[in-house]
């Protein structure tokens, strides 16, 4: 299955909230949405915080899926 994907590689930490929020609202009808954060725990935390602020349902990847977050609903 191919997911609608937001890749945050190259995104600055200060831009994460606006990038994630804009992307999710523009693509909210295409859930689930995969967000690729990479291996940065700081980036993962910033994305989680943003998703909680807007009330999204999501799952944080672990194991082979570490560095990804699957957004189920916006």
Provide the β-strand percentage band. 15-25%
Shape label:
globular
Number of domains: 1
Q: Give the quaternary arrangement of the chains.
A: single chain
**Radius of gyration from CA coordinates:** 11 Å
Distance between the termini: 20 Å
Spans with pLDDT under 50 lasting ≥5 residues? none
Mean pLDDT: 95
The count of DSSP E runs of length 2 or more, i.e. the number of strands, is: 4
How are the strands of the biggest sheet laid out side by side? 1-2-4-3
CATH architecture: 2-Layer Sandwich
The first-level CATH class is given as Alpha Beta
Summarize the main sheet.
4 strands, mixed
Q: Can you put this structure into words, describing what you see?
A:
A four-stranded mixed sheet has the order 1-2-4-3, with helices on one face. 24% of the residues are buried. The chain has 74 residues and is α+β, with helices and mostly antiparallel strands. The chain starts with a strand and ends with a strand. The model has no long low-confidence stretch (mean pLDDT 95). The protein contains two helices and four strands; from the N terminus they run βαβαββ.
SSE blueprint:
Layout: E1 4-7, H1 16-26, E2 33-36, H2 41-53, E3 57-60, E4 68-73
Parallel strand pairs: 1-2
Antiparallel strand pairs: 2-4, 3-4
Helix pairs in contact: 1-2
Key terms for this structure?
Ribosomal Protein S8, Chain: A, domain 1; globular; four-stranded mixed β-sheet; alpha+beta
Quick description:
The protein is α+β, with helices and mostly antiparallel strands.
